[in-house]
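We emphasize that the prediction below concerns an isolated chain of 276 residues; any contacts that depend on oligomerization or on bound cofactors are therefore not represented. The input was used exactly as deposited, without trimming of termini.
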Amino acid sequence: QSRPFSPPISTHLVKRAALIVGNTYKNCHNMELLGCKTSAENVKKALEFRGFNCELKLNIPADEILRLVTEFTENKTDFEARLFYFSGHGGNESFSVNGGGHAITENLVGFVDRSGQLYEGGEYVLGQDGRKVFKDEILSSFAKDNKPNVHKILMFDCCRGEKSREMGGTQKTTFQLEIMRREEANQKNAHYKNVVILHGTLPHQVAWCTADGKGSTKFSKHFCAQLSRHGGVNISDMDEAINAELEKDQNTNKDTKGHVQMVEMTKRGISKPFIF
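Result of the prediction step, given as a token string:
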């Protein structure tokens, strides 16, 4: 049993805000993730103890996620830190896809009559309606003002791979498809300042929940535990601290079916530390 959160020793006088989204996919076509509601609620509680003004949103469709991010960003321009947390389904669509008679990502190409839509690729989260929102879209909106004195933190607590490939499943295809595109060709000329992106797992890997999939996510469990410590917590140390706990989980609980979960942190234009 985890110990209750304790208020930190220091009191933050600066303004901090967090937008927290938890999607459970209840009564949807996607697999239910009821623990994502618990994860979002726990993260809200942990951040509030660290001086964040939190907005919690549950079961949000794709278009609404982007609208909320845009509105949140526009309304929090005078805050010292903005944080976005998403818990739910996620995945990846590559820039280079070769069907070759093997399994490819479902819905990579969607056809209606004689017209079709082809996604260029990238990592995404799923709205409650099962539609994809690419992480680059969220980042672009969340860091739109790009103020150098504002910390912009994004946390994606979701899978970063497609289940049928990452977990050993297969599906038949009736065509072959190969797309080759230079990664540089898809990069926008955006020089973000003081942006930290924390992924709940490594690229092309699955994120796991506690209690055999029924409890909160492993990432949120250890993230909240870090924030429950007394004193300041530097975000730059968080990936190493959480990974150490995930490694213990793997060796002790053995509930990830042989797969490894490790968080990954990306920093862009960091010029000063952020202390929770």
